[in-house]
Amino acid sequence: MFSVTSQRPLWFSYLKINHRANRVHTEIAELSSFLHSFKHSILTKTVLNKLQILSLSGILGSLLMFTGDMLLYYEPVSGLDYDSVARMSTMPVKRLVAGGLIGPIAAIFSIIGTYLFYMVFRSVNKALAKISFVSFAILFIVAGSYHAVFANFGFIGRLPESLQIQQLLFLKTYLKSIYILIFICGTFWTFIFFYLVIFKKSLFPIWILLFTPTLLILFSKILKNHIPYPLGAIVYGGWINLCFMLFFLVCFIHFSRDKIKSEINNLS
Fold this sequence. Notes:
The chain is mainly alpha-helical. The chain has one domain (about 50-265). About 75% of the residues lie in helices and about 0% in strands. The protein has helices spanning about 10-40, 50-75, 85-90, 95-120, 125-150, 150-155, 160-200, 215, 220-225, 230-235, 240-255, 260-265. The longest helix has about 40 residues, at about 160-200. The N and C termini lie far apart (about 65 Å). The relative contact order is 0.16.
């Protein structure tokens, strides 16, 4: 006996392909419109909407955290020669204190910025919108603490070598536990963000996923070997905060587009 396999008509496949092509074309048009609005978002004098203000807060938080990084361990090196711990042991104490203190302050502005996720997504799924905001807020709270504690590498580096090994072991163990919490919150937020952007209609276009900071961060190890002198500490050392800064900047420009301003004004 021969089994007969049912096949869908050719016109059905054509419609499916045509639908995907139209969707790709729409996303490309959206991205083109976004790039066009870049010229007007900052240079023109307009009243900022609420999502732009939140985006600016996120940019400021990332910029402050990046500044703290540079205070802690900046030096003109390549990516291969970058060593933050070794550099911090030679930094002035006042600079280490200032760099560490910036972390918790920067976290406040970053947390304010993350409220935009709740505002954007609450109309499509209020529960996930709350979880998205809370998970990212916890991430920045813990990241601010991590940044402040990280300065201790510089203080330990001033101790006699016989005392450094045990102290460094304690510090690295503690920071590892903090990093695990940051990783969990970041991964949780990423899944929620992708789900809401792809499967729910919101103010976020699909192409925004290309700028997801928690994914861009994964490229840091690949970039390290290719960062030339003197950008090692700036690019590799500040990569995490540069990724968040870029993401919030993209959000700011996107929310300045005339096409969605009316929708933003309808947000309560």
